[in-house]
Task: inverse folding
């Protein structure tokens, strides 16, 4: 059974749904009914900043607290969906912190994080004011997928900006309806 982990990278204040999440929820509504969905707002977690021990200690302990929960959720998922507005032409800080923790998870003795990620699908649902300016962020995500042997999926992009701006992007809303339709049965 497929298990989609939606990683919402928005930093909008509580109670406000951003354009990327609006678009992602539209896409998720098209998933088969038996598809497990886990939604996580990364800004609500206390993920530790990454400390680079690669050239000193060389290994990392098993993460604890929210980092351990995110590791477990990541490993349990068949599909990771980065729900990612573009902030300053780049990755939002909550998602960047999560990705930085992958560097530690790669070096936890006995975890075999890289091997566990091979074959998982990586999807991106992003919004920004300009598709062309989103490309560097999308390229970063694609490179992460390639490094871990994940299956990179074509990103879904919509027009962002002020709250609900994506609702005026008919092309993105139409694409969201069938975004996950190419899944194997």
Result:
């Amino acid at each position: 059974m497929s298990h989609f982990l939606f990683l919402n990278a928005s930093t909008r204040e509580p109670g406000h749904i951003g354009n990327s999440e609006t678009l992602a929820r539209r896409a998720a509504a098209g998933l088969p009914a038996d598809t497990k969905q886990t939604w996580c707002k990364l800004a609500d977690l206390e993920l530790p900043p990454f400390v680079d021990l690669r050239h000193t200690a060389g290994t990392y302990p098993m993460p604890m607290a929210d980092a351990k929960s995110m590791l477990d959720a990541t490993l349990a998922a068949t599909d990771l969906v980065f729900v990612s507005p573009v902030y300053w032409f780049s990755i939002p800080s909550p998602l960047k912190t999560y990705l930085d923790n992958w560097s530690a998870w790669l070096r936890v003795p006995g975890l075999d994080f890289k091997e566990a990620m091979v074959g998982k699908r990586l999807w991106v649902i992003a919004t920004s004011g300009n598709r062309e300016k989103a490309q560097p962020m999308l390229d970063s995500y694609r490179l992460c997928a390639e490094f871990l042997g994940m299956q990179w999926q074509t990103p879904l992009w919509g027009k962002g900006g002020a709250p609900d701006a994506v609702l005026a992007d008919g092309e993105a809303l139409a694409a969201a309806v069938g975004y996950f339709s190419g899944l194997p049965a």
Summary: The longest strand covers residues 121-128. Helices lie at 19-28, 65-76, 93-105, 113-117, 131-148, 170-177. The mean pLDDT is 95. The CA atoms of residues 9 and 84 lie 5 Å apart.
